[in-house]
């Protein structure tokens, strides 16, 4: 990880041009990941912002616009405004972001802000599997340095980038290579944070890291928390086995935050952030300031899934999961087997959970996020969306 960081920060090709001051009332945004779970909500909020004049979405594949439209519809989001949104087929790891040179040059003249959301979410892969994403960050930094306005780079990072740090984690860049969770995903996110911090300061472009905690399902009727993630996998497996763990071990205090609230927060941050004058990278945590205990939700979950569901210890539940893994049970029925190491890690009593410290940016949602009744209603909604 450290060698890769040194190599890329040494190789990155940047310009030494002087940047013009952008018109903050007419923002032109380059957005990646607009067809994804979080990106769809960010796009929905950005297109409503009066300060945003135009959004250019970089998509993998020529069908990006169709996938984007279908994703917005399935999530119950607003109709996209074709006069405000342009879709371009791109490959971030390629020179010029995989764009035609004329399109690339046109964007360097227009873009004031870059919002980078696109990232592969898979906790079973090694760091090497994320090399394409890491190179993509390098290309975006090069792009920002070539823009007329010295585009502000907003990078959506993750709590996984600092997931090995116990207790409260501050809104700052961490230079310890031991900081991330020991997964390729977490390591790649920390590596990207370090690259952005180093190169943006060197070039003189503003940068903001939005370090996001556990993203949950939406508060709306439509949409869905992706089924391959740990909670829906746990509940689908529990329903199949007929048992539900009474505790989540070292992760028993849940500080998740609904995806639509995350999308609104990041959009607000992009639209309202003033450019830093001190040359430092800003770090903003997007996570719930309070936790809800698993025990406050367990009986709501049990009643929704299967009224006769038995509540067992976490150790018993993990043992049953191990039996499924040993037998080679179908992962479609017991999807938690794909995340066995994660669930086994919950039993580690020596591990103190990571908690992202948050500033005043979450004040408007604090009462909502801390309400047990609201959390229970959200859980019922998510279970209905999963069809469990």
From TrEMBL:
Stored Pfam families: NAD_binding_4
Keywords from the UniProt entry: Phosphopantetheine, Phosphoprotein
Keyword presence, Iron: no
Domain of life: Eukaryota
Annotated Thioester reductase (TE) domain residues: 31-265
InterPro entries: Adenylate-forming_Reductase (IPR051414), FAR_NAD-bd (IPR013120), NAD(P)-bd_dom_sf (IPR036291)
PANTHER family associated with the record: ENZYME, PUTATIVE (JCVI)-RELATED, PHENYLACETATE-COENZYME A LIGASE
Stated name of the protein: Thioester reductase (TE) domain-containing protein
Originating species: Bionectria ochroleuca
């Amino acid at each position: 990880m450290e060698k890769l960081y040194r190599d890329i920060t040494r190789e990155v090709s940047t310009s030494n041009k002087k940047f013009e001051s952008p018109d903050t009332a007419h923002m032109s945004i380059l957005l990646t990941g607009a067809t994804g779970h979080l990106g769809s909500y960010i796009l929905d909020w950005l297109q409503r912002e009066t300060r945003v004049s135009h959004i250019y979405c970089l998509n993998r594949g020529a069908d990006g616009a169709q996938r984007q439209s279908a994703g917005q519809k399935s999530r119950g989001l607003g109709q996209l405004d074709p006069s405000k949104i342009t879709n371009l087929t791109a490959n971030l790891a390629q020179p010029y972001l995989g764009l035609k040179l004329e399109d690339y040059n046109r964007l360097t003249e227009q873009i004031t802000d870059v919002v980078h959301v696109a990232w592969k979410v898979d906790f079973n892969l090694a760091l090497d599997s994320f090399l394409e994403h890491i190179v993509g960050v390098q290309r975006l930094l090069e792009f920002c340095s070539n823009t007329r306005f010295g585009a502000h780079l907003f990078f959506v990072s993750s709590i996984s980038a600092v997931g090995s740090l116990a207790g409260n984690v501050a809104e700052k860049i961490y230079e310890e290579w031991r900081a991330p969770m020991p997964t390729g995903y977490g390591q790649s996110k920390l590596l990207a944070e370090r690259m952005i911090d180093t190169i943006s300061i060197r070039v003189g472009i503003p940068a903001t890291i939005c370090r996001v905690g556990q993203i949950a399902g939406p508060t709306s009727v439509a949409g869905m928390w992706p089924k391959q993630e740990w909670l829906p996998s746990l509940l689908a497996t529990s329903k199949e086995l007929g048992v539900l763990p009474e505790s989540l071990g070292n992760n028993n205090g849940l500080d998740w935050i609904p995806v639509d609230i995350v999308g609104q927060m990041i959009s607000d941050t992009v639209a309202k952030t003033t450019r830093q004058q001190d040359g430092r990278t800003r770090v903003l945590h997007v996570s719930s300031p309070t936790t809800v205990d698993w025990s406050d939700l367990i009986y709501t979950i049990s009643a929704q899934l299967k009224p006769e569901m038995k509540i067992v210890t976490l150790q018993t539940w993990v043992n049953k999961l191990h039996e499924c893994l040993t037998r080679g049970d179908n992962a479609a029925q017991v999807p938690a087997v794909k995340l066995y190491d994660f669930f086994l890690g919950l039993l580690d009593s020596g591990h103190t959970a990571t908690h992202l410290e948050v500033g005043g940016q979450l004040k408007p949602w604090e009462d909502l996020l801390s309400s047990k009744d609201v959390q229970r209603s959200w859980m019922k909604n998510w279970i209905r969306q999963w069809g469990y």
